[in-house]
Every structure is written in structure tokens, then in C-alpha cells.
Amino acid sequence: MAGLDGQKVVIIGGSYGMGFATAEMAIDNGAEIAIAARGADKLNEAATKLEQRGNRLVARHALRIEDRSSVAAFLADCTPFDHLVLPGSTVKPILYGDLTEEAAHASFDSKFWGPFWAAYDGRRHMRRGGSVVFYTGVAAHRPVKGYVMGACINGALNAATRSLALEFAPLGLRVNAIAPGLTDTPLQDILHGHDKEERYAEYSARLPVGRIGTAEECALGAIYLMQNGFVTGQVLGIDGGHECMA
Ligand SMILES: NC(=O)c1ccc[n+]([C@@H]2O[C@H](COP(=O)([O-])OP(=O)(O)OC[C@H]3O[C@@H](n4cnc5c(N)ncnc54)[C@H](OP(=O)(O)O)[C@@H]3O)[C@@H](O)[C@H]2O)c1
């Protein structure tokens, strides 16, 4: 029997990157899947691939994580489900000196408030034994230049993960987070298309593991957090040793 047999996994941000890799792995582990993201074309393409892989229907919904009412409606449509996985958000790197109030709020609205309210609105549709998986990042602990907003949001989400583990416990639900380090996903093309190769080379030289990460390695972490019923309130670093980097 596969580890997620009979369980339903809802992924906001499931059309590419870590979310899509997690959807593929969850299907291989026996789960039913529903995915959401902003771009309808990539979402449909991803859902079709997942349907072929699992030989079962994959629900999909185009939405923005910042749009709480659309997210709540999607989660209500998915009811009942077991796991809520939340990699989908947008934070653009920006130096502190160039920051505007508007950009700062937009970042929090996307990567903090989006997943925060999705968990709040989703919990009433989740079956006991399920879990929430947030995505934070290494910048919370070891700063990366240009990622001050990411660092603040990741720190806040790490704190929320521990608090919500307590708050969700009476519902029989666990709450954890993944803190990725530099990982080769389409996000890197979007944010660092111009200097991606230089960044990869620099981090590969400095990280203890000698390379950057893959979406599949982060997906393995999400599967572990969903399956292991004794793990809650944890922030799982999947980062090639970023904190001990040279
Ligand atoms: N990759 C890294 O090096 C790295 C490092 C540290 C932390 N992280 C964090 O890990 C998580 C996943 O990263 P990733 O690299 O897999 O990202 P990615 O490759 O950009 O994939 C993001 C997924 O989320 C969707 N999405 C993006 N913004 C959204 C929004 N506002 N509303 C709804 N869906 C949205 C995307 O589809 P659409 O564009 O069509 O919406 C896509 O399906 C993120 O929270 C990221 O900050 C990543």
C-alpha cells in the first residue's frame, strides 16, 4: 500500500517548480491531487500530465494566492481533503534602499498572508490526520543580499508554523514548513534569468554539498512531512548546508 493511498493533496502553486514535483510524487504515493496557480495554460498542461501519470482526474483552478475569497472557494470545492501544500507565491528580490511601501506590502500579501489565510480557511475542510506544508526559505536564518523581504516573511512564516502546530492540534492536523535553499526551478529563471548561471556556480562552490538543489529534493521533504504523523511545528531545511556555507 502506498503512503498517501486514499488521501487527497491540495497544492496551491502546483503547475511547475517544487509544487508540481510534489504533485507528481504524491500521485506516485497513491494520492488524489487538486492544483491551483495563476496561469491557466500551464495549470492545464500540468493537470493533464498528472492525470496521465496517475490515471485519474486532477482538479485545477486558476487563482492568485493573494485573492482570499477565490482561494477559500477553491478549498471548499476540494472538501474533504487531507493535506494543504502552499508553495505558490511571489516575492521579488529588492535591495532595502530601493524598497517601496507598495512592494513590501505586495510581498507580504503574497507569501505570508496568502498561505496564512489559505490554512485558516482550508482547515475546516481537512480530515483529521492531515497536514499543512508552508514554504519559507533560508534567508530567514542566513541573509541573502536583496532578500530582506523574503527574510522577514520567512521568519514570520517559521513562527506561524510553530504557533499553528499548537492551534491545529485539536483538529487532528499538523503544520510544518519547508525552508529551501537555492533550488533549480523556473523561479530562478523568472528572478535571476540574467545572472542565474553565475549564482549557481557561486553557490555550488560555497555550499557543503557542492551543488544547488532540485525541485524533486524539496518534493521528497513535502512527502515526508505529509506522511510522518509524529512531525509537527517543524521547519525542514532542504538547502545543501546553506547555514554552514563558506
Ligand atoms: N527555488 C528556490 O531557490 C527557492 C529558495 C527559497 C525559497 N523558495 C520558496 O519555495 C516556494 C516554491 O518555490 P519554486 O521555486 O517552486 O517556485 P516556482 O518555480 O516559481 O513555482 C511557483 C508555483 O506557484 C505558482 N504561483 C506563483 N505565484 C503565485 C501566486 N501569487 N498565486 C498563486 N500561485 C502562484 C506558479 O504558477 P503561476 O506563475 O502560473 O502562478 C507555480 O505553479 C516559494 O515559496 C519560494 O519562495 C524557493
Characterization of the model:
By secondary structure, this protein is α/β, with parallel strands linked by helices. It has a single domain, classed as 3-Layer(aba) Sandwich (Rossmann fold). The protein is built from eight helices and nine strands. Helix 2 links the parallel strand 2 (about 30-35) and strand 3. The N and C termini lie far apart (about 45 Å). The model has no long low-confidence stretch (mean pLDDT about 95). The structure holds NADP nicotinamide-adenine-dinucleotide phosphate (NAP).
In short:
46% of the residues lie in helices and 19% in strands. By secondary structure, it is of the alpha/beta class. Strand 5, helix 5 and strand 6 form a beta-alpha-beta unit.
User: Which secondary-structure class do the elements indicate?
Assistant: alpha/beta
Number of helices: 8
- The total beta strand count reads 9
| Number of discrete domains | 1
For this entry, give a set of tags.
Rossmann fold, alpha/beta, 46% helix, 8 helices, binds NADP nicotinamide-adenine-dinucleotide phosphate, 246 residues
Give the SSE map.
Elements: E1 8-12, H1 17-28, E2 32-37, H2 40-54, E3 59-62, H3 68-78, E4 81-86, H4 101-122, E5 126-135, H5 148-168, E6 174-180, E7 183-184, H6 186-192, H7 196-206, E8 213-214, H8 215-227, E9 235-238
Parallel strand pairs: 1-2, 1-4, 2-3, 4-5, 5-6, 6-9, 7-8
The site of NADP nicotinamide-adenine-dinucleotide phosphate has 30 residues, from helix 1, helix 4 and helix 6.
